[in-house]
Amino acid sequence: MAENTYFLVNDTRYDNHHGGLTVVRNLHAAMAARGWTCTGSLPVSASVSHLTRVRAPLGKAQLIIVNGEGSLHHNSRNTQRLLAICSQLQLSHPVAIINTIWQENDTATWKPILDACVAVYARDRRSREQLIGIGVDAGLAPDLTFYDYPALSTRTGEHYACTDSVMDEWTKWAMEQCESASDMDFITLFTRTLTHTRGMRDWGKRIKYAVYPLLPHRLQARVAARYRTLAHAEDDTTALLERMSSARAICVARYHALCFALQQNRPFVAVPSNSFKSEALLEDVGLRHDTFLYRERDASSLRDALASAADRQEEFRSTIAAFNQSARQQIDAMFDSLTSSLPE
Q1: What's the Cα-to-Cα distance from 62 to each of 2, 95, 121, rounded to whole Å?
Q2: CA–CA gap between residue 278 and residue 271 (Å, rounded)
Q3: Using CB atoms within 10 A as the burial measure, which of 30, 102, 185, 301 is most buried?
Q4: What is the SS3 string spanning 255-296?
């Protein structure tokens, strides 16, 4: 029997944060469990011109899987890159877009691409509704981090925690609060080591990863927020999850930090991001915005919100656990459908 093969577009491991690492690891695991082998990948933020560099692995692939993740919103730069890439690859391969947000993109340019896909799966109902609203027969399967993750101890410490964000101003503010409080731990989803790089394209990033964490504390204000957080970074995802799980409650300001908090069923409040992704996930779980969203930037109110989240966790534990179980089932169904609908 011929080997089933696929090529991955938008490989978010190259962002070097634990959300992207977990998504791609789980994607490969789910496909391997169904007898499919990955021939190669195109890193996140790559442009259509980079397809020439992966001509050989593309030629071996029967299917293109596009990891939409958080890229397809507001006609962003990455949205435009993926539009051009999908358009080119559909000339030679069946293309499936999965694990994607979809928010306020240009219908005229995207509709022909989406219609030509062999499958489109949104990771939240809001995104799916927008896709259906433009006539795309989109499926639903939650974020791929829900496919597989460790079940850690639910022990609880006395300290709180706060994560970084894609919004630099929030990251700076959160670090300041944690540095000034003895019972507030700052957590970043970036890895300490730059393990996935795009060769010479990332030479500057390599230097920053090596040098910036070594700068004296008094100079850190001159360093971009992403690199300032590296002093708090973990290379091992389980170690990151253990830090999150040991907090009395955690303020999650990244989408995948919210995913991780839900998977470990930890008390949390969530900070809005650069799209509706966190709000949409809360809705899918069945959690109210007025209870779980934190929109302010005040140390006292943040502490009050976290204390309230810790006190009320038992009210929502069964709701969250039910979503976690359902999410895995939906993801399994998506991969079953995707792999069984194509010739072996």
Answers
A1: 11, 9, 19
A2: 8
A3: 102
A4: HHHHHHHHHCCCCEEECCCCCCHHHHHHHHHCCCHHHHECCC
Q: Where are the domains of the chain?
A: 4-147+326-340, 160-321
Distance separating alpha carbons of residues 212 and 222, to the nearest angstrom: 10
Parallel/antiparallel/unpaired status of strands 36-43 and 95-100? unpaired
Cα separation, 230 vs 212, whole angstroms: 8
The helix or strand, by DSSP H or E, that contains position 160, with its residue range, turns out to be strand 160-163
4-147+326-340 and 160-321: same fold? yes
For 343, the token pair is 């010739």
CATH number of the 4-147+326-340 domain:
3.40.50.2300
CATH 3.40.50 holds for 160-321: yes
Q: How many CB atoms lie within 10 A of CB 329?
A: 12
Please state, in angstroms and rounded to a whole number, the distance separating the CA atoms of residues 328 and 249.
25
**Alpha carbon distance 137, 188 (integer Å):** 36
Smallest CA-to-CA distance from 41 within 50, 32, 30, 31 is with: 50
Please write the tens of the pLDDT for every residue from 124-150.
Answer: 999 999 999 999 999 999 999 999 999
Which residues are within 8 A (CB) of 45 and not within 5 positions of it... i.e. 6 or more apart?
Answer: 14, 78, 81
pLDDT digits (tens, 9 = 90+) for 256-313: 999 999 999 999 999 999 999 999 999 999 999 999 999 988 888 999 999 999 999 9
How many CA atoms lie less than 13 Å away from 280 in the CB half-sphere? 25
Instruction: For residue 70, give Cα distances in angstroms to 12, 30, 58.
Output: 10, 20, 24
What is the rounded CA–CA span in Å between residue 156 and residue 167? 28
Rounded (10°) angle between helices 255-263 and 18-33? 60
